Amino acid sequence: MHSALMLRRFCCFNGASSSLNPTHKKKQLVFMGSPPVSASVLDALLSASTAPDSMFQVAAIVTQPPSGRERGRKVLPSPVAQRAIDRGFPHDLILTPERAGEETFLSNLRALQPHLCVTAAYGNILPSKFLKIPLLGAVNIHPSLLPLYRGAAPVQRTLQDGVKETGVSLAFTVRALDAGPVIASEKVEVDDHIKAPELLELLFNEGSKLLIHELPSIFDGSARVKAQPQDDSKATFAPKLTPEESWLCFNEDAVVLHNKVRAFAGWPGTRAKVCVLDSSDDLHSILELKIITTRVCSQSYIQGGDEDNVNFVGGALVFPSGGKSALEVLELQLPGKKVVSATAFWNGLRGRKLKKLQ
Length: 358
Hints:
seven-stranded antiparallel sheet, 10 helices
């Protein structure tokens, strides 16, 4: 895309609002994000930018390139790009570089002369030459209470650790990972049953409110003064999830297993292998189950008989687990099938026994 062409298109798109008040030049904001939670932040920014007293306008949107998703691997725009299109945002101002350090992309960004870049789960490392372009820098919505859980999977690792309180932080972006000064943060209590997709949505909704509230201070420079440096000695890290981690090991305590199921919900999910035995205890089949919804057995589980037996009690499959605990599985899924209740799955066994393999 030619920079001058993009700049002309940009001026046409924003000229109407600017001409209403020619003495007030709005700040140019570039938004960067990719997944559905980022789309909610974009919605908040676009809505706020149309308010009569708005100090800014969204100059461009930067997101991941279209990719193959869903069955058939049809190439689709990112959720942020799709939301922008649905809202009538100019297509040529939706930028999709493979990397944020590409020279063509950086040239186009410089042509926009942005005051500020806002990132929310963009999914791409921002190099130093990028960070030098926006006059006021870049700020990031990060779904943790920094310096805790820096990295790619803060919400998932928070749930995996069984943390009772988390939050969202608004921080200036620096080259070091999630290490910039914190402008503001908001705490959120975590209950024992919320899963990663729901907590992600909650935190980015709170982050959107925090961002809109703090934009005036970012634009007038006072946010730079009040932003608090992070204490690196207290930093913890949240590495991205891998499919290899998704297997459940029932030697672990049920609380650990339940937290992992919540943390890995959405992607990559949690899996367990079981064997089905007929009435004579002969092996009938081995099944790989995707574990969807669980709870920790409220009573201490005393293992009796064969400790590998999986029983059905009160609408749940009861998996004996470490430390005389038990994990109750309420919903599960067989490969290529729909999610079903434990009751429906148990009824489908038609009296055959179930044993865990891990």
